Amino acid sequence: MDAFAQFIPLILIFAIMYFLLIRPQQRKMKQHQEMVKALRRGDQVITQGGLIGKVSKVKDDDEIEVELAQGVVVRVVRNTVAQVVSKTEPAK
């Protein structure tokens, strides 16, 4: 019984760490993956490098083309999109 009583604080610390750190991080990662999957042509995005542009083409599963300025198109890995500033309406 004494051995179990010594592990109770350790178990409580792990439970607190899980609910305060690990679980919110997993939720945030899941939201980011959903956002990246939903990218469409015309969406205005901000990359992790700080570049702001408009999605001009959705290529493979892991790559998009972003137009930074008129005539300046760069290839970007989807997972490096940090934020979607404005979404376009889906085509009907």
Assembly status? single chain
Lateral arrangement of strands in the main beta sheet: 4-3-2-1-5
Quote the beta fraction: 25-35%
**What is the overall pLDDT average?**
90
Number of domains: 1
Outline type: rod-shaped
Share of helical residues: 25-40%
Put simply, the count of helices is 1
Distance between the termini: 67 Å
Number of strands: 5
What's the story with the biggest beta sheet?
5 strands, antiparallel
SSE layout and pairing:
Layout: H1 2-37, E1 44-47, E2 52-58, E3 63-69, E4 72-77, E5 81-86
Antiparallel strand pairs: 1-2, 1-5, 2-3, 3-4
Please explain how this structure is put together.
This protein starts with a helix and ends in a 6-residue tail after the last strand. Strands 4-3-2-1-5 form a five-stranded antiparallel β-sheet. Helices cover 39% and strands 33% of the residues. It has one domain (2-86). The chain is α+β, with helices and mostly antiparallel strands and 92 residues long. The protein has one helix and five strands; from the N terminus they run H-E-E-E-E-E. InterPro entries: Preprotein_translocase_YajC. Keywords: Cell membrane, Membrane, Protein transport, Translocation, Transmembrane, Transmembrane helix, Transport.
